[in-house]
Amino acid sequence: MINYDEVSQKYKNMNIEVPTKDMIKTPEQIEGIRQAGIINNMVLDEVSKHIHQGMSTQDIDDIVYKKTIELGGIPAPLNYEGFPKSCCTSINDAVCHGIPSDKDILQNGDIINVDCTTIYKGYYADASRTFCIGNCSEETKRFVKVCKESLDLAVKNLKPYSRLRDIGYYIESYVKKHGYTVVHEIGGHGVGVGFHEDPFIYHYGRKNTGMVLFPGMVFTIEPMINEFSREVFLDADNEWTIYTMDGGLSCQFEYTVLLTETGVEILSK
After folding, report:
1. Which of 3, 29, 171, 189 would suit a FRET pair with 229, their CA atoms being 20 to 30 Å apart?
2. Is the pTM above the cut of 0.85?
C-alpha cells in the first residue's frame, strides 16, 4: 500500500490533480472485485458460446441472468435506475445501453455489444464484448478489430502514476489513424464498491494531462468507436439507448482494470 498522504502531497506541490482517498481500493476490496470479475468473465464466456444469428437479444439477457445467478452473483443492471434487464445489448448503430427485447433478432452481418456487470458479495465488475454475427463484411471486421486494439493499446500504456488523459490520448490517436471516431459524451468510470464511481475516464484527450493515477485504483476503460461521425443521440422513447447520429456502426469493448505498483491487472474483460 502506498503512503497516500505523502504521495498526494508530492503531486499537489506540482499542481497536479490527485485521486481522493476513497478512489484507492483496499486489498480486501480488490480481492472482492477480482472475484466479481471472475464471475463476470464466465457470464460473458457463456454468451460467447451461444450467441448466434436468429436469436433475440432477450435470449441473450436470459443467458446472462441464468448464468449470473447460477454462479452466485447478481446482474447489476437489472432495475438499476429503472433499467429493466440484466445486461445491455447494442446492435449496429446503437452505441450503448440497448435494452434486450424478444423483438430484436440478430441478423447475418450484424455486430452487437453485450455489456455485463456482476455484483458478487457486494463488489462489482463490469465488461463488454462486441460480437460479429454470421458473415460480416471485411470492413466491419476491421472496424471491430480497431476498436479492440485501441483499448488494448491504452491498457498496454497504463502505468502507476501516469495521467488520466493518457488513456484517451492513446485510444483516439489510434482510432483516428484508421479513419474512425471516438464518442466523447460517454466514458469509463471507477467501479468496485459501487456500479459507477469516480473518476470519469475520458476516451480522448491530450497526453500528460488530467489526474495522476495511483496504484489501487479500479476503473473501466470502454471506448465507444463510431464508423463515421462521433455525434450521437438519446432514444426519446426508452430514454436509455444511445445511437449514432448518422446511422453508422458503433463498436465497444470494455475492461475493468486494477492499477498496481508495477502495471495493470485486467479484472474483467
Report:
1. 189
2. yes
